[in-house]
Amino acid sequence: MRKLLDEDLIELGIDLPDWEAAVGYGSELLQRKGYVKEGYKERLIEREKTYPTGLQGKSIGIAVPHTSADYTIRPSICILIPIRPVRFHAMGEKDLTVDVQLIIQLAIEGDGMQLKLLRSIMQLLRDDEMLQRLLKSRDKKELLELLTPVLED
Q1: Cα gap 135→56, rounded to integer Å
Q2: Cα angle 139-16-86, degrees, rounded to a multiple of 5
Q3: In the chain, what is the straight-line distance between the N-terminal and C-terminal CA atoms, in Å?
Q4: For residues 102 and 12, what is the distance between their CA atoms, to the nearest angstrom?
Q5: What is the pLDDT of residues 95-153, one digit of tens each?
Q6: Are the C-beta atoms of residues 31 and 41 closer than 8 Å to each other?
Q7: Cα 119–76–129 angle (5° rounding)?
């Protein structure tokens, strides 16, 4: 798989009041850096309302907002770690919510890439030690070093 992670797409300690603000923040960052086309943000919010992406791990929640490849210029992953958990609706169970501490926003090309990344993220969800290391990190380079083998292998 090609290089998807970039230090410029990692944000730590940001104030995100709700899931729409979180998805919007990541979308604007991806668009500003030239990774996604105009309309990505709106499509992502629309998709998140219909098919929420909150996932509960052993000790933390993760959200994996993504949409169709039509809006992707260059495949990439945006990582957001908010200062406090952001409530997302649970994947597959819209009536449930997940307090999310790690947002892994995807700009993908094709279903094959999406499936591979989602499998990797599901493995990450089961690795509580790694999740704790990610949350404790306050350095973009360290996060990049931790996530690259997980999301780019």
Answers
A1: 15
A2: 95
A3: 6
A4: 10
A5: 899 999 999 999 988 767 777 888 888 888 888 899 999 989 889 999 999 998 888 75
A6: yes
A7: 45
User: Quick one: average pLDDT of 73-84?
Assistant: 95
Q: How many CB atoms lie within 10 A of CB 79?
A: 22
Q: Confirm whether pTM is higher than 0.85.
A: yes
Q: Would the CA dihedral through 127, 61, 27, 119 be positive or negative?
A: positive
Classify 7 as helix, strand or coil. strand
Q: Tell the burial category of 126 from Cβ atoms under 10 Å away from its Cβ (0-12, 13-18, 19+).
A: exposed
Mean pLDDT of the chain: 91
d(CA 14, CA 16): 6
